[in-house]
Amino acid sequence: MGPSCRSSAGAMWSAGRGRAAGPALVGLLLTLLVPGSGAAKTGAGLVTCGSVLKLFNTQHRVRLHSHDIKYGSGSGQQSVTGVEASDDANSYWRIRGGSEGGCPRGSPVRCGQAVRLTHVLTGKNLHTHHFPSPLSNNQEVSAFGEDGEGDDLDLWTVRCSGQHWEREAAVRFQHVGTSVFLSVTGEQYGSPIRGQHEVHGMSSANTHNTWKAMEGIFIKPSVDSSAGHDEL
Amino acid sequence: MGPVSRRDFYKILGVPRSASIKDIKKAYRKLALQLHPDRNPDDPRAQEKFQDLGAAYEVLSDSEKRKQYDTYGEEGLKDGHQSSHGDIFSHFFGDFGFMFGGTPRQQDRNIPRGSDIIVDLEVTLEEVYAGNFVEVVRNKPVARQAPGKRKCNCRQEMRTTQLGPGRFQMTQEVVCDECPNVKLVNEERTLEVEIEPGVRDGMEYPFIGEGEPHVDGEPGDLRFRIKVVKHPIFERRGDDLYTNVTISLVESLVGFDMDITHLDGHKVHISRDKITRPGAKLWKKGEGLPNFDNNNIKGSLIITFDVDFPKEQLTEEAREGIKQLLKQGSVQKVYNGLQGY
């Protein structure tokens, strides 16, 4: 998104004005194509590891949310819900790789990559397991772990079309361990979390399980190649 | 904006003409804190100096504008200055960045505040050594005026109503004021987080006002907390770096020459012509990390050697040969090596 990307593209086309030497133009072309995919992307940009964001369910218009309140049934772990407010700090989640060092800061998340979503304010990971959800009897989704460390059931595969998770795209999160999709179907809780929606896992991919990145702190894709480029 | 003068932008930022974008950002950030007019109330030229700084950064940080400036000077710049300097300043310090030195805002208890957000920022030892800037896009809800009014400052109040002569009833009622209507609109801006050389784990870089909004008050802050990740070659202890090298048995006895590639690619040369015992430590002063408070002071690099013994058993011939070469008698000293540990 930096101005330098756009201006170097501008320079390339204006260089063709005169009879530029063939090799010079080819050289320019190569330097533009070789750097990482971040340089060629248009639009809002890619979601990268280390970024903190809110996830918005496009069908039910609620944001993925957690807080220090445990389920009264099922696993008894910390509850995960959907909220309508756009200014609640408890709706921020951090995108991390599947293991330590698995996804360095600034590397764009690939479609099909397994990630962990860590709840920023409580340090617990988005998690699901074979317990029934309290309102709809789907699969319970909880927040589990300590300081970002939970277990293998914290892994979710990002399902999207194309190569990388784009900020403007609607994506799905499919659980690695149990294959369910992170979903909302509209059931709402009563007191003490009145108005919050149930978030659960369901087995089919449909309109209830598409999510979009909304507010957040998005780390721009890193330009240097220390992370390695697998598309070249 | 004033007349177009021939300003030397490189001089204003204090960087050489060959400066990298990283050097330019670093110079801007340092000088912006010093030259901000709020910080220099007694200097009549403070505003002008601050504007010059902003203009210098705007041109030199944009590769196309910089090229134009390098060739044609300030008059050769095609467009005028687009962004206001306040805009550039907020990239580095947040919305209310004129609260300096990380001191907390004056807490007026009556003004409610939105939540603070703390973001862990993973940082490599290479970045701790040389410094870096991380560009981040902050998309946040902002309270904007909307048509109409809304209820605000709602509170419980006791109302007394008279039921009859001498009989009163006290009830609780919710009473609200009327305020201008606000709605939350998502806005986006780029922030530049500096990783300063020598930065330590846990240090925070605040961006004032970039946290969550509060419809009835001020937004909270966004703070980046540095988390230094483990390195495969170097271990950090304060400003010192520790590393291990395995050498062969032959090298340990006859000496060796080698290079260790440091965090920024420069080579640290090691030359040994004496015997190197397992566990031997070599101190290389000045080859550690820069000190956060004074980058010119560097810690040390401490290299610990261990020796790789041959894996295959030696032949009879080799055993005899070694006995001859080393001319050592049997030692076999028995002693308490633990001594209470």
From TrEMBL, chain A:
<keyword id="KW-0732">Signal</keyword>
<dbReference type="Pfam" id="PF02815">
    <property type="entry name" value="MIR"/>
</dbReference>
<feature type="signal peptide">
    <location>
        <begin position="1"/>
        <end position="39"/>
    </location>
</feature>
<protein>
    <submittedName>
        <fullName>Stromal cell-derived factor 2-like protein 1</fullName>
    </submittedName>
</protein>
<feature type="domain" description="MIR">
    <location>
        <begin position="162"/>
        <end position="216"/>
    </location>
</feature>
<dbReference type="InterPro" id="IPR036300">
    <property type="entry name" value="MIR_dom_sf"/>
</dbReference>
<keyword id="KW-0677">Repeat</keyword>
<feature type="domain" description="MIR">
    <location>
        <begin position="106"/>
        <end position="161"/>
    </location>
</feature>
<feature type="domain" description="MIR">
    <location>
        <begin position="44"/>
        <end position="98"/>
    </location>
</feature>
<dbReference type="GO" id="GO:0032991">
    <property type="term" value="C:protein-containing complex"/>
</dbReference>
<dbReference type="GO" id="GO:0005783">
    <property type="term" value="C:endoplasmic reticulum"/>
</dbReference>
<dbReference type="InterPro" id="IPR016093">
    <property type="entry name" value="MIR_motif"/>
</dbReference>
<dbReference type="GO" id="GO:0005576">
    <property type="term" value="C:extracellular region"/>
</dbReference>
Automatic annotation (TrEMBL), chain B:
<dbReference type="GO" id="GO:0005788">
    <property type="term" value="C:endoplasmic reticulum lumen"/>
</dbReference>
<feature type="domain" description="J">
    <location>
        <begin position="8"/>
        <end position="73"/>
    </location>
</feature>
<dbReference type="InterPro" id="IPR018253">
    <property type="entry name" value="DnaJ_domain_CS"/>
</dbReference>
<keyword id="KW-0325">Glycoprotein</keyword>
<dbReference type="InterPro" id="IPR001623">
    <property type="entry name" value="DnaJ_domain"/>
</dbReference>
<dbReference type="InterPro" id="IPR051736">
    <property type="entry name" value="DnaJ-B11-like"/>
</dbReference>
<keyword id="KW-0732">Signal</keyword>
<dbReference type="GO" id="GO:0006457">
    <property type="term" value="P:protein folding"/>
</dbReference>
<dbReference type="GO" id="GO:0051787">
    <property type="term" value="F:misfolded protein binding"/>
</dbReference>
<dbReference type="Pfam" id="PF00226">
    <property type="entry name" value="DnaJ"/>
</dbReference>
<dbReference type="InterPro" id="IPR008971">
    <property type="entry name" value="HSP40/DnaJ_pept-bd"/>
</dbReference>
<dbReference type="InterPro" id="IPR036869">
    <property type="entry name" value="J_dom_sf"/>
</dbReference>
<dbReference type="GO" id="GO:0051082">
    <property type="term" value="F:unfolded protein binding"/>
</dbReference>
<dbReference type="Pfam" id="PF01556">
    <property type="entry name" value="DnaJ_C"/>
</dbReference>
<comment type="function">
    <text>As a co-chaperone for HSPA5 it is required for proper folding, trafficking or degradation of proteins. Binds directly to both unfolded proteins that are substrates for ERAD and nascent unfolded peptide chains, but dissociates from the HSPA5-unfolded protein complex before folding is completed. May help recruiting HSPA5 and other chaperones to the substrate. Stimulates HSPA5 ATPase activity. It is necessary for maturation and correct trafficking of PKD1.</text>
</comment>
<protein>
    <recommendedName>
        <fullName>DnaJ homolog subfamily B member 11</fullName>
    </recommendedName>
</protein>
<dbReference type="InterPro" id="IPR002939">
    <property type="entry name" value="DnaJ_C"/>
</dbReference>
